[in-house]
Structure prediction request, 842 residues.
Amino acid sequence: AGWAVPGTTVCPQGYYAPAELGAMANCTKCWRGSYSAAVGTMDISTCTACPANTDSEPGDTVIADCRCNVGYTGAGAYDCAACSPGTYKDTNGSATCVACGRGKYSTDTAAVLEAQCLSCPLYTDAPVGSDEKTDCICNAGYTGADGFQCTECPVGTYKPLNGSAACTLCAIAQYSGAVAATDAATCQDCPAGSSAPEGSDVITDCKCNLGYTSMSDGTVCTACPAGTFKPTTGVGECTACVPGKYSESVAAFSISTCLDCPANTYAPVSSGARTDCTCNAGYIGDDGTACVACPTGSWKAFTGEGVCTACAAGKYSVQPAAVSQSYCQNCAQYADSPEGSSSGDMCICQLGYYGPGTGPCTPCEQGHFCALGQKGACTANSDAPAMSPYQANCTCNAGFTVPVLDGPCETCPANTYKEVSGNQSCSTCPANSVSLHDASASRLYCACSPGYYGDLGGPCTQCPAGSWCSRGQQNACPPFTESAAGSDEQTDCHAMAGYSCASGETCNLCAVDNYCPGGPPPNIFPCPEGEQAPQGMSAESQCVAASGECDDANAEKLFGGACRCRGGFWGDVPAGDPCVVCTAGSYCPGGNVRASCTAHSSSAAGSAFAASCQCDPGYYFDAASQCVECESGKWCFGGAANSCPQNTGSSPGAVSQEGCSPLRGHCAPPGMPYVEGEAGTWCDEFGAVNQCSEGFTSPVGSWSEANCSAIVATPAPAVNKSNTTELSRSAGEACGTGSCTVGFYRQQCADGGECVPCTTPVLSNAVWTSAGVPFDADQCQWECSDGFVQQSAGSCIQGAVNGTAANETAVEEELPNPEEPVVTPIILAAIMAGGGGGGVGS
Prediction:
């Protein structure tokens, strides 16, 4: 084969012509795997074999044509090396060996096929180019020996990396139900307040921590509140601290957190704060601190903060830390003691009673004052209620005052009043009012002066223009009249310009052919002779000469040329009738028209307008401009309704203020409001004041002389001469009679009558609260200083005693005997305070 003819053509490189074939030989390619650079060669031996692990194509001419075999790689003929395990090469040439893919391995050297890369066991993986089976390591989430099939990580574990490492347990307080988990995030946290061991695989493995509680495993656990503890894990209730202990710890898990309350305190079960430890009954102090016993003379029935309740006045107690009011024993009947008395020796007769302290104690009568068993009488025109304890309770009656300190009660002067008992000064009646009584006991006796109006007692307002004010009542002037401010009679109302009337009467429009300038009469004047004027003219200049255009002097010519009667006259002029003046009780606007006034109203003759019709006396215009009869309690004039003055009344149809009659027993001077008649007088049916005969008197508001009765002399009350000299001094002795200042008492007259310091009892942690009781006895009242409580007379110790606590419910108050008079105990610390002023005992 070949393209050369032996003998004529030379064989090229890579060929040879076998000599044994002679002329028949053709040029033949060197065999595959060889090469020849010789030309014209006749010997096969010139074909040189390629180096080991290489190959060439038939006819190749140079060694460079020898390429690496499959399974080998290199740069040239002498550089071919076998592909290492984990790789293969399925082509000749210098290409590199191909690595076995991920998840495969090969142990063969010079592998020529991809199939020689074997797959790793199940659940394993190997990197590219793996050359051993042990390069197959477990996937993430699986575990086992290298080169062998791996097993999945069980629930409660995870494995994030490839390899033979063991699966990692979920951490404490986590759980996972996932198989072959590769991420720690698959381990979920237990619910709040709970925990689980490592490798937990279900939520119910999560159990409450110490100090936390829940109804079931796997749910949120709540911290045991303060006042409780729980020493175990899992389901279970918190255990309460026992009474008398407290715990401020939350989520406590030891009984040791329950601490003892301070001394003399108590806390209920499950107490969660030291302040839950509150004082026992009979003890006081702040919550959460040690408490001290209530002193004698007091008690406390409840637990907790608060003060000891002093034994009520009239009781005493010798028991410290008393828990009940029952420890407070009663003093003798009608005897009393100060609040917080700690001994029966502190019981004395109650204020408002007189007699020996051992009894009987008699109630003080009205008009007297009684203290420490003594009784004195009030002076004239002063009084004191029954059971009065103080000299100062004798105060001037209403209507009386004390003009001089310690002097007698005297009548309030004219134009003053005093409404209450006491030693106050009399008050001046409001401006523009005067009092109608001596010894006025009420502001309501101050009545507005004429020309002013207002309720009894004021304020009084000046009567405005256009009205008049009498007996405290403002009244409208009659229609078409006017008055100056401060007018006090109806006759002060005079005609307005253009109207005429008598003063105080209803005015009419000025009559035709007249002019009316207003003011008091005379207030209507005729026009000059030969002149005319319509109704309502106010000046002579408004009178004009008669036109003479019509035959009738009282006719006027219209624009159309016809004549007709002018206003205030009526008649049919075209028919030849004369114009006659309009009759009273009607009005004539002109022409042949005459209209009657409505019921209960009237007008003057010659009226031209409907407004000239005014309601008759005793009637007033209602909302519909109809005249209706005046109601009871009012009087009506000129179409206006006026209220009757205070304390008066009227029958229907009253026509003037004089028609308002005073109430029975009420009277007043002319023009003044009616008030109740004062004692010693009586008021007749017309409201006139009448004096009872000499030696006779009458009660306030009397209406007949028959109400006057003879004055019966009242004997002066007997003075108990066993009383202190206070009583005889107030009868007029020369030495001092007034009370001293707090902490002082007045000496006996024989000793000079001066104010000297009190010495009984000797005070310790206490202060004086009054002058001497009575004022000339060394017996000033006292009380403990702030923060101290009574131990004995004048001596106080540190503590906190007050009145009955607001939340006291444990002990019922002892009720008084229904057969005995109910007497409110009076604290002796205020005896006779304020003995100065008028109306003192005699």
The longest helix spans residues 725-729. The longest strand covers residues 586-590.
